[in-house]
Amino acid sequence: MKKYFSVIVMVFFFLIFWVPMLGLFDDEISLKNFDSTDSFKQYFDAHLFKKQGAETYYTKLFLGLGISPDEEIAILGKEGFLFIANSNDRELDAFRGLREFDDSHYSLAVERLNGLVNYFEGNGIDFLLMIPPDKTTVYHDYVPKRITRTGITPREVFMERVREAGLDEYVLDMTPILLEARESVGPTLEDYLYYKGDSHWNDFGGYAGFKGYLAHENIKNFPDYEEISIEPFYSTPDLAGLIRAVDFEDSEVSVIFDPVLSSYEEIKLTQNSDWRALFLMKNENALYDKTVFLLRDSFAFAQLDYFSALYSEVYVVHYYHVLLDENVGELEKMIEDYDPDEVILEIVERRIVDTLMQFTDVSVLE
Predict the structure, then answer these.
(1) What is the DSSP letter of 285?
(2) Contact 344/125 with Cβ under 8 angstroms?
(3) What contacts 301, CB < 8 A, 6 or more positions away?
(4) What is the DSSP letter of 254?
(5) Quick count: other Cβ atoms within 10 Å of Cβ 306?
(6) What CA–CA distance (Å, rounded) separates 178 from 244?
(7) Which pLDDT score is estimated for 50?
(8) For 318-355, what is each residue's pLDDT tens digit?
(9) H helices of 124-168, where?
(10) pTM of the predicted protein model
(11) Which pairing describes strands 288-296 and 342-346: parallel, antiparallel, or unpaired?
């Protein structure tokens, strides 16, 4: 009986793991046509569509078994949450306290921050750096238990240096805001601040961060949302896409509030349609007649509706387009052309030190 059971198990695993590979080959092709590993690889790469189909199949199979197919790119945690691993920004090592920067790196990051504060404040422009937390930080208990934490994160070290430099009033670390939001919204909504298959927060998470901004600015008259809408959807977001999880099951969370406030006009100000694009969000019904620059990263997109409801003119551009050495002239031109009352710089936790280090020394500007 045991013998038959073993045979059945072997056949089962053969059907699951190897039969899909046969779809990679044309009818007239057989394995005997490949005289080496290189010749098989050349055929495999040349038939990319079939290769992608096989990869998608195996990805779904692995995820169904509770395993990420590529743990250098993404880790699969509890409740179906995918987390960035170490292929790019080393978020997982940062979460574990294993990503270390030299003391000189932190010093340079704080020096660049101080330069930004002095430059903008010296020109009569309010300045604030906002730091959205990584998904691993907010959903730390959903990260697999085998991923142990052994030290403090670069964000924690950076914030300590910020306080030592007396710059904490110019920095809004949103970590406690999102952790409190997750706890306060209750079990029905606690899993809906970030996408499961993406590294970013959704509109609801962005709203929680925005509420933190309102509290920091002591703004108390912004109306609360009227409704939270949660709809299932299937897409290929950033993390899911990187591991070929096509049509990944996730949830789209919409924050519905005052339709008058949320009505704005988006005006394109450059010909670029990529990350370099500069655009204006103009809202005559906004709560405050104020001009704001939002020097963004990708996390800002989940907050644009809220900032445009708050301020009458919000100019949005990626920070790399104005704060690198080769682009700093764009910053001076924008200030001269649009005369902002406030500049908000938004940089996600996993990139805060690296990004500030790359910025130009704006203290040399007039």
Answers:
(1) T
(2) no
(3) 206
(4) E
(5) 24
(6) 29
(7) 43
(8) 999 999 988 888 899 999 999 999 999 999 999 999 99
(9) 135-138, 154-164
(10) 0.84
(11) parallel
